[in-house]
Design a protein that fits this description.
The complex is a heterodimer of chains A (386) and B (241). Chain A is α+β, with helices and mostly antiparallel strands. Chain A has helices at residues 2-17, 19-55, 81-87, 146-152, 196-202, 207-210, 230-240, 249-254, 259-291, 293-301, 306-337, 349-366, 368-376, 379-384; strands at 61-65, 91-105, 111-117, 130-131, 141-145, 159-166, 169-181, 191-194, 219-224, 244-248. In chain A, strand 2 and strand 3 (111-117) form a beta hairpin. Chain A is elongated, with a radius of gyration of 29 Å. Chain A starts with a helix and ends with a helix. The mean pLDDT of chain A is 89. Chain B has helices at 48-55, 78-88, 104-115, 120-132, 148-160, 178-195, 230-238, and strands at residues 4-17, 20-33, 37-41, 63-68, 71-72, 89-92, 166-170, 198-202, 214-219, 222-227. Chain B is globular. Chain B has 7 helices and 10 strands. The model of chain B has no long low-confidence stretch (mean pLDDT 90). In chain B, the strands form 2 sheets. Chain B has a 6-stranded mixed sheet, with helices on both faces. In chain B, strands 2-1-4-5 form a 4-stranded antiparallel sheet. In chain B, 35% of the residues lie in helices and 28% in strands. The chains are: A alpha+beta (386), B alpha/beta (241).
Chain lengths: 386, 241
């Protein structure tokens, strides 16, 4: 206990009396922190842009067409598959989901959106925060993601113009906004939701597709009576419904085209930034320990234990790293205030916490070699260096 | 008769150099009593620093025994030796003696912290000791803000503040000019006598022996001469031997 108290005393005194030098190292750590937190936020933002709708689905399983490799866009199910799924014992509800990509014409210019169709009250249809659900049939009504509303300036009750290419010509459709929902980005695009019939009529399609006006769902969102029985229900669905494959939500997200590659890239950037941090801190403390060899020799000669010398080095590294992470965290917050909402930065508490823990660990890891070196310094040899 | 605080019995330290054995300390025996200040002199390579390192529990002997305040060094493990250095031995070195980021007062008090005896009374003692050494205006100065002589005086205070049995000084005046060196050694000797410590000073400068009670002269690892009387010591200090 006394060794720890003396180590803390020495560490604080040294940092305080050499605060200029240590502050410089803390600032380097602060910059690394800034970078790591921004990369984490960017990763989360990009991930959200891709997966938000799927991640927020009120369902546990997704039914795909067989051999579609769990890719929503590659899957197109038969209409009666929905009823077959609903009949399976243990399925509480099943909602077909129809996906397409189109463009809204607004005063602020064209905006690419994901045009999704679902059945109100069924899995796949998000909760409406303000306004109401669209009516069924070809009602030409839509529920819009708040982000879309923000980006286009469109409000509930207004009409939006959809431009879709159908059979080689651009067609314009007028849809009334009747409600707003939130956090429903999909394929990195804001979303609008409508009924399957309206979706079938207004979505972009080829001349061949125009001959058939039946809306075919891409996938079916399945809500289970017992959400813990995912594996059992997966097998049961595969056994009772023909020509399908089934995936849980995480598998579906990981199979969104580009999602895994994108997240892998962002995570690699984060890991390399942390690695650079380890090397920078390691280098600094190694040089510092080399400069302090005679001083450590004196400390040991007059009766300081190895535990005191080692703990002092560790505490010093923790102080410098904590200062750097605190400054970096503050800078990140200030910078984030000035970023436009179009940049996909999402500061998620869990991700930021993991990043901060990782940053706090890079100090001791980086300084490990120097700590071991300090502990191994022999006082006699160190004193002969004088 | 004062008690023997440091006893060296037939001490040998052998180094292997280029395959051949060399006795850096060769069958050395002597005693130092409390209140006695002894100089260890001799040319470079005579073994005085090696001997001091063994006495400081920083180096283990090849054979023979060293007793410090009744503790047999060869019977102690590293942890016990660290504790002995902390509590029973005081040190001053040639230079870079002080912890550079602690003030004069903090450097001295550090020995009290190490020994767990940091209290109001001892803090006052540290201040008084520094004041006695003429450093009352330098209590809050960092080593870099003090002269070499002032730093050595802080080191002396640090070597004595925890009431060690033995005080060891390795060339404490090596980096000082003659006048300051004389002042430092005189102060050192005064405090050792006053506090009844056993003091050993390694020096190559015979003029510094003026203030000691006994001189042990080494050559090729052996103790070759011992000067006990005031006349012999004064003569050696003047360079008559």
């Amino acid at each position: 206990m006394r060794a720890l108290s003396i180590a803390t005393y020495l560490a604080f005194k040294e940092v305080w009396r050499n605060r200029g030098r240590f502050l410089l190292v803390s600032l380097v750590i602060a910059l690394i922190t800034l970078l790591v937190l921004f990369i984490a936020a960017l990763g989360e933002g990009l991930a959200n842009g891709n997966r938000q709708y799927v991640a927020n689905l009120n369902a546990q399983l997704i039914v795909f067409l067989q051999k579609s490799d769990y890719i929503i866009a590659s899957s197109q199910l038969q209409v009666d598959t929905v009823n077959q799924v609903r009949r399976v014992d243990g399925v509480a509800a099943a909602g077909p989901i129809y996906t397409a990509s189109t463009e809204i014409e607004s005063n602020r210019g064209p905006l690419k959106v994901s045009l999704l169709a679902a059945q109100p009250g069924q899995p796949g249809m998000p909760a409406v925060l303000s306004g109401r659900d669209f009516h069924g049939g070809d009602s030409r009504e839509v529920v819009m993601d708040q982000n879309t509303a923000l980006q286009t300036g469109i409000q509930i009750g207004e009409e939006i113009t959809i431009r879709s290419t159908q059979g080689g010509t651009d067609e314009f459709f007028y849809l009334r906004v009747v409600g707003l929902t939130s956090n429903q980005s999909y394929y990195f695009q804001p979303t609008i939701f409508t009924s399957p019939e309206t979706w079938e009529n207004v979505k972009p399609q080829s001349a061949a597709e125009l001959k058939d006006d039946t809306p075919y769902p891409n996938v079916i969102a399945v809500q289970l009576s017992n959400p813990t029985q995912i594996n059992l229900m997966e097998s049961r669905l595969l056994g009772q419904v023909q020509n399908i494959e089934v995936a849980d939500i995480p598998t579906t997200i990981n199979n969104i085209p580009g999602y895994s590659a994108q997240q892998g890239t962002v995570q690699t950037q984060g890991i390399f930034t942390l690695l650079i941090g380890v090397l920078v801190i390691g280098g600094f403390f190694q040089i510092q320990i080399l400069q302090k060899v005679p001083q450590i020799g004196v400390l040991k000669a007059i009766g300081s234990s190895n535990a005191t010398v080692g703990a002092s080095a560790v505490i010093q590294i923790i102080i410098v790293t904590a200062m750097g992470v605190a400054i970096g965290g503050g800078l990140t917050y200030l910078f984030s205030l000035g970023f436009p909402p179009t940049i996909p930065l999402v500061f998620n508490g869990t991700n930021s916490l993991f990043a901060i823990i990782a940053l706090m660990l890079i100090g001791p890891i980086g300084g490990l070699v120097s700590i071991i070196y300090a502990v191994r310094i022999e006082p006699l040899k160190a004193l002969r260096l004088q | 008769m004062k008690e023997v605080v440091l006893e060296v019995r037939d001490l040998v330290k052998t180094f292997i150099l280029d395959g051949s054995a060399l006795n850096a300390v060769d069958h050395v025996s002597f005693q130092v009593r409390s209140g006695e200040f002894v100089a260890l002199v001799g040319p470079s390579g005579s073994g005085k620093t090696t001997l001091l390192s063994i006495l400081a529990a920083l180096l283990t002997q090849s054979s023979g025994e060293v007793f410090i305040d009744g503790h047999q060094l060869s019977a102690m493990n590293e942890s016990q030796r660290v504790k002995l250095r902390r509590s029973r031995i005081g040190f001053t070195f040639q230079s870079n003696n002080l912890i550079p980021y602690l003030t004069a007062q903090e450097n001295v008090e550090f020995m009290l912290r190490l020994n767990g005896t940091m209290g109001k009374v001892n803090r006052l003692r540290a201040e008084e000791l520094l004041a006695r050494l003429g450093l009352e205006g330098r209590l809050h100065s960092l080593p870099a803000q003090m002269s070499g002589g002032q730093q050595q005086r802080v080191a002396i205070a640090r070597a004595l503040i925890h009431n060690p049995a033995v005080v060891l000084a390795d060339e404490p005046t090596a980096s000082l000019d003659t006048e300051r060196a004389m002042q430092v050694v005189q102060t050192f000797a005064g405090l050792i006598h006053e506090n009844q410590r056993a003091g050993i000073m390694v020096t190559h400068d015979l003029r510094m022996c003026k203030y000691v009670d006994r001189i042990l002269q080494m050559r090729d690892g052996k103790l070759v001469n011992e000067y006990k009387t005031r006349a012999e010591i004064e003569a050696l200090a003047k360079g008559d031997h």
